[in-house]
């Protein structure tokens, strides 16, 4: 529910300026209070204190309509620095509210607060919010539900009910200690102990039958499941026994509906599906299962399965809300853990609506082309040190075009806006690998990567094509990449090394799917296009937190355009200081 607090005068003035600047005055103002606090939670018969928003796990849902202004006051009551990212929100000209620590803002320090203000422009569907510093998003996350403007229907049959489904991961240990130990030793972090559905691990884990998410339904109804993968490190298959799912929306963009038994969803992605229940009482209950997709070696990821339960209301019971507990439970069959062909076939079926009302405005001409290699590598151990990386004298690292990103101590956006970028970042991120090699073949002898804080600089309005090429230096893995500040069109994908002569001929420039997060196929590539129509500094990173921690990230700097509505808004007065 929206909070009813009073904004200070300075914040109110800033809201009015933002309304006037982005032309959103016709929408409502949606106000929320986020109190970041420690909360005791018990899972898997073990209790610990975790970071939460408003004491909720998962956190509260942010509701809005297209055209609204969202105002969220975040107060940090915990001993950790905090920032909140509104994943998938375009943040047109409002990059100060995007949230990644040391990219668009300095973090909110303990005892401090910050008011995030952003307009919902041209978006409707399911997105989500999460902490964007260290591994705190393990427990600090929640849904964003954006409804269409009043009177505007869905481009599919309206569901009878809408239900958020958030996948997460649970560690019995303190996740900040988990990543701290991994970074100290140079090895991989300990994997999670369970996956969760809406914060609950479910009956397939020890001591967890009472902590099971149950979706209670009636026959002959249609339910829209707003599915979000908030897991830190795992792509997930999801299926419901005995029921098919019709995918109608991904990353808050409508698509041509496809009906499937199983979906694949990477960390950071959202998927809206329609679930039509059976026409009459079936006399059974049904498992809802999620399990990982991975091509990594066993032991480097959580290879368990989380279950929720789909229950039908019993019409024979006199109670209006009775559900029979003594029924057989049917179980779906999920793809094999490394079923890359299923993943390619599923993602290849996703297509934009490409209608007059919801066009696929994919750039046909390209101003700037980039080839980014994404994958794992190594750093050398300290002199006379011993590490737990691929060898005992190396540490795990990850990079884009062989540059392992180093977070600055000053926010990049603030350094750019104030003209004080010297010593903070350099504007010379390589447009292609400086030393080409057989990316998906025999790895090079030298697996070390360089460190740096480098940006790509783009003029406002440039049409960009980016090919992200997976590597097999330390094994071929899928990498879900998220781009802040933009949606992009997935115009092509394939396996092996990208061929700049042959592969573009097979691009889909008619109805490619539009997303904010896309998986780079294991030992393959993906091509995206977008327009640099949003001034500011925008993070792009793998959404597997372990790879982010190792440096698989970079940033784009989009310069102001010539017109007033093409320029970054000034920073708010309460912007956190480093």
From TrEMBL:
Domain Plastocyanin-like, residue spans: 36-149, 162-313, 435-560
EC number(s) reported in the record: 1.10.3.2
One GO cellular component term noted in the UniProt record for this chain: apoplast
Protein's cellular compartments: Secreted, Extracellular space, Apoplast
PROSITE patterns cross-referenced by the UniProt entry: MULTICOPPER_OXIDASE1, MULTICOPPER_OXIDASE2
Cofactor: Cu cation
Alphabetically ordered keywords of this record: Apoplast, Copper, Lignin degradation, Metal-binding, Oxidoreductase, Repeat, Secreted, Signal
A biological-process GO annotation: lignin catabolic process
Protein name, entry field: Laccase
């Amino acid at each position: 529910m929206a909070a009813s607090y009073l904004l200070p005068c300075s914040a109110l003035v800033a809201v009015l300026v933002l309304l006037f600047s982005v032309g959103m005055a016709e929408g409502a103002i949606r106000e929320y209070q986020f109190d970041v606090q420690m909360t005791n939670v018990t899972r898997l018969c073990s209790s610990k204190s975790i970071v939460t928003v408003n004491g909720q796990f998962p956190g509260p849902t942010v509701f809005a309509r297209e055209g609204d202004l969202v105002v969220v006051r975040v107060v940090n009551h915990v001993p950790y620095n905090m920032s909140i990212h509104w994943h998938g929100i375009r943040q047109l000209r409002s990059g100060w509210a995007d949230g990644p620590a040391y990219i668009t803002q300095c973090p909110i320090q303990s005892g401090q607060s910050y008011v995030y203000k952003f307009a919902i422009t041209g978006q409707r569907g399911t997105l989500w919010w999460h902490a964007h510093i260290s591994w705190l998003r393990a427990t600090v996350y929640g849904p964003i539900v954006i409804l269409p403007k009043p009177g505007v229907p869905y481009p599919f049959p309206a569901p009878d009910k809408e239900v958020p489904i958030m996948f997460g991961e649970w560690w019995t240990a303190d996740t900040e200690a988990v990543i701290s130990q991994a970074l100290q030793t140079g090895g991989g972090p300990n994997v999670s102990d369970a996956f969760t559905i809406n914060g609950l691990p479910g009956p397939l884990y020890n001591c967890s039958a009472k902590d099971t998410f149950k979706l209670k339904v009636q026959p002959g109804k249609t339910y829209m499941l707003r599915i979000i993968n908030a897991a830190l490190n795992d792509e997930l298959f999801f299926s419901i026994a005995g029921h098919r799912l019709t995918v109608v929306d991904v990353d808050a963009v409508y698509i041509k509906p496809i009906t499937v038994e199983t979906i694949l969803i990477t960390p950071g992605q959202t998927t809206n599906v329609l679930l039509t229940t059976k026409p009459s009482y079936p006399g059974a209950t049904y498992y809802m299962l999620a399990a990982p997709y991975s091509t990594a070696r066993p032991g480097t990821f959580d290879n368990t399965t989380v279950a929720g339960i789909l229950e039908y209301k019993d019409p024979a019971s006199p109670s209006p809300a009775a559900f029979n507990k003594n029924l057989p439970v049917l179980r779906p069959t999920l793809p094999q853990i490394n079923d890359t062909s299923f993943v390619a076939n599923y993602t290849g079926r996703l297509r934009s609506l490409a209608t007059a009302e919801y066009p696929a405005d994919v750039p046909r001409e390209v101003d700037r082309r980039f080839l980014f290699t994404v994958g794992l590598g190594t750093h050398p151990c300290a002199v006379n040190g011993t590490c737990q990386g691929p060898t005992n004298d190396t540490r795990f690292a990850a990079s884009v075009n062989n540059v392992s990103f180093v977070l600055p101590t000053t926010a990049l956006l603030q350094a750019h806006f104030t003209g004080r970028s010297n010593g903070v970042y350099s504007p010379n991120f390589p447009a292609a690998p400086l030393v080409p090699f057989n990316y998906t073949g025999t790895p090079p002898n030298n697996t070390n990567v360089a460190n740096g804080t480098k940006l790509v600089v783009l003029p406002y309005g440039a049409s960009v094509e980016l090919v992200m090429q997976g590597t097999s230096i330390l094994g071929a893995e899928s990498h879900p990449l998220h781009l802040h500040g933009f949606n992009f069109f997935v115009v092509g994908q394939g396996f092996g090394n990208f061929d700049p002569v042959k592969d573009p001929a097979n691009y889909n420039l008619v109805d490619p799917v539009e997303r904010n997060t896309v998986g780079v196929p294991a030992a393959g590539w993906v091509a995206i296009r977008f327009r640099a129509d949003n001034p500011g500094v925008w993070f792009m990173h793998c959404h597997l937190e372990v790879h982010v921690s190792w440096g698989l990230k970079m940033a784009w700097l989009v310069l102001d355009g010539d017109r007033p509505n093409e320029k970054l808004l000034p920073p708010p007065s309460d912007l956190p200081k480093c």
